[in-house]
Fold each of these.
Amino acid sequence: MVIGKIVGTLVSTQKEESLSGLRFMVVKAVDIDGETGSSYVVAADAVGAGVGEYVLYASGSSARQTLQTDKRPCDAVIMAIIDTWEVDGDVKYRKDA
């Protein structure tokens, strides 16, 4: 699993039929201090996340193990919205703050 921040959405009206019904989000990887890097992925959203939220995402074969992505050609999936994270007693992020 990787921490990421949703920085955008992706809309595709023409796509493989098995992808119908999935929402796609543009996600940038985030380091442990909450700083976004330069790499990004397009991930299927399995949890209803929105732009600006911090999420956990998985890629590779793990991305096809949610109910929404099972047997679909997905390489990345958002599987959790982060409420808070803490490192060595220091709160790095709190959603309600």
Note: The chain has one domain: 2-94.
Amino acid sequence: MKRLIDYTKILRSKNAGPLYITFDLIFNTREDMIYVSRRLTKEQISTAYSVPVEKIDVIVYEVVNSIKITFPRKNISGSLNDNDVYGCQQHKPLAELEIGE
């Protein structure tokens, strides 16, 4: 079984303001982007990050072979309970999701 990271050229996380985290998935080929977009589910993301499915946005940008995923942060960026003020270290659970074959 291949992991999501195996299909992407770039997989990164970052803040989308202080309240949200966003993930950029950029693919080498349109075929990989379409393949992943048809298999990656909000339920998988919800399980990986303990976020309610209805709080997750997944946007496919076919023109640039990419997918953006956004959902609320568990802790406001820079708050006392925050462990990643820039949101740049949150991509590993997503990268490890099993996709396809």
Note: The beta strands are 2-3, 8-15, 20-27, 57-61, 66-72, 98-99.
